[in-house]
Amino acid sequence: MKVFFETDQNITAGSLAEMCGGNLLNGGNGLISVRGICTDSREADAQTAFVALQGERTDGHAYIATAVENGCRCVICERAVSVKEDTAVIVTENSELALSRLARAYGNTLSCKKIAVTGSVGKTTAKDLIAAVISEYASVYQSKGNHNSVIGMPLSMLEIAPETEYAVLEMGMSGFGEIERMSLAAQPDIAVITNIGTSHMEMLGSRENICRAKLEIVCGLRDGGYLIINGDEPLLHHVSGKNYRTVSVSVEHGSADYFAQNIRVESDGTRFDICWNGQTCKDCFIRVLGKHNVYAALYAFAVGILIGMTPEEIRHGYLRFSPSGMRQNVYSLYGMTVIEDCYNAAPESMRAAIDVLSEYAKRTNARSVAVLGDMLELGEESDTLHRMVGAYLAHAGVDLLVTVGERGLAIAAGAADAGMNPTHIFSHKNRDEIAVIGQILFEQLQNGDVVLWKASRSVGLECLISDWKDRIDKKTKT
User: Fold this and answer.
1) Which one of 10, 119, 341, 348 has the fewest beta carbons within 10 angstroms of its own beta carbon?
2) Same-domain status, 465 and 434
3) CA 370, CA 375: separation in Å to the nearest integer?
4) CA 347, 352, 355: angle at the middle one, nearest 5?
5) Rounded to 5 degrees, what are φ and ψ at 282?
6) pLDDT per residue over 280-315, tens digit each?
7) Distance between CA 290 and CA 269 in Å, rounded?
8) What is the pLDDT of residue 325?
9) Is position 105 within any domain?
10) How confident is the model over 316-357, as pLDDT tens digits?
């Protein structure tokens, strides 16, 4: 990953060492100008500093020589290395921590307000909706894609231009301490926790521990700031702090600070009303399907009101939003409606997607088909959670199920145990046998079907979709 400082200020190797808390070994090179930062030696050049990171599989220090060969004149690392005399070497006790310190120091030069978003699922959609809403009102920066790690988030901060009024940053994690580090680096004015799910159960062991990890977002929250939470999550009900105000949103209870009602899923999006402080904003609309996406709209609405926007500005801001990456994409193909949602999957997002499928199919009087794959990082509860998804699907009345991958077998078993007709269930354990699965889909899917595709990103369900489309194309051309 490579980013450039969005500032006219001259950043030198010497000032970079100060910002990241490192020791510049060869002080004579302290005046070397640095315009960017990268963590891949292949992206290093004369104005881009290379950060040598210790990874699980690779050690960035082994690539310092390559970076220097590419023209790099400034290196941030954890031990003294032998390089050309005209190359600045900044040694820190931890290169990853140095990035966080660098981001915090750079952030302190900015005047923008920062909004930090975390949660088990839905954080990218929430981040994008918040940014879309704010863009109706002021200049806004949003972290790209899912640059939400202890490496990606600090690097994203370096891209914030001095004239930016608001920055929306996403924070993900795989264990304790990661969100705390990012929050301390960002020092947000507003923090959002979308939900507490079961992702990362493998690392953290329980939803209670996941909640503790997510709540680390308040560690850097500025005094007088706001924490916006999902009021329908029992694990978050108790959250409060002396130095910040907690604000709740809900689609279930009218007691929340902001709550949605009259939710209607339409062919091209979702419409709803938002109530707060004795007021109602009617017929809000977002271009994604499902009640679960209304939560994201509520977070954006709450942020908008807190920063001084009018309800009408927020309504217009919603229309600037469209799903990013491989998140929910609904389109028609050869008489079928396709709901393509291949970016990631967790039990909570699976159930939400099944709700969308079921509701859409019932509204259009169509057959509902779910093509589901493995959900990862669920630890010892993996089999149980996959079976629960299958049972949920059966109770929702989905007509046909195709599962892909070893864990998908548990989804199929859960559906059958919950009463789904076994003749309507097709499973294939080896997710790499694209042609075999593609043929099953080609034979089973029919004109008029509503088809949901969802699995964890590494399953590569998009390859299966491509194979299926190719088969249909060949049929229509013969």
Assistant:
1) 10
2) yes
3) 15
4) 125
5) -90, 155
6) 999 999 999 888 899 999 999 999 999 999 999 999
7) 8
8) 60
9) no
10) 999 999 876 656 788 888 889 999 887 778 898 899 999 999
Q: How confident is the model at residue 467 (pLDDT cuts 50, 70, 90)?
A: confident
Give me the residue label for tokens 């699965």.
437
Burial class (CB in 10 A: 0-12, 13-18, 19+), 239: middle
More confident of the two residues 198 and 103? 103
Rounded to 10°, the helix 95-107/13-20 angle is 100
Q: Can you state the angle between helices 311-318 and 123-134, rounded to 10 degrees?
A: 120
311 and 378 both lie in a single domain:
no
Exposed / middle / buried, residue 268 (Cβ in 10 Å: 0-12, 13-18, 19+): exposed
pLDDT of residue 459: 81
Hey, is 281 helix, strand or coil?
strand
Within this chain, do residues 257 and 370 fall inside the same structural domain, yes or no?
no
Per DSSP bridges, beta strands 269-276 and 258-266 are antiparallel
Torsion angle of C-alpha atoms 382, 387, 388, 393, degrees rounded to 10: 130
State the CATH number of the domain containing residue 83: 3.40.1390.10
What six digits make up the tokens of 142?
Answer: 């949003």
The domain containing residue 157 runs over which residues? 110-318
- CATH code for position 168: 3.40.1190.10
The pLDDT of residue 326: 59
Query: E strands, 375-423, where?
Result: 400-404
71 lies in the same domain as 154: no
What is the arithmetic mean of pLDDT over 81-103? 93
pLDDT reading at 36 higher than 70: yes
Q: In this predicted model, what pLDDT tens digit does every residue of 202-260 receive, in sequence order?
A: 778 889 999 999 999 999 999 999 999 999 999 998 899 999 999 999 999 889 999 99
Paired strand residues for 114: 167
Relative to beta strand 113-118, strand 166-170 is parallel
Q: Quick check: is 41 in a domain? A: yes
φ, ψ for residue 462, nearest 5 deg: -65, -30
Q: What are the structure tokens assigned to 286, written together?
A: 């977002």
Beta bridge partners of 167: 114, 141
Judgement on whether residues 337 and 470 belong to the same structural domain of the protein: yes
Which residue do the tokens 């899923």 mark? Answer: 265
- C-alpha–C-alpha distance, residues 154 and 374, integer Å: 31
Cα-to-chain-centroid distance, residue 406: 25
Q: How many domains does the chain have?
A: 3
**How many angstroms separate the CA atoms of 403 and 137, rounded?**
44
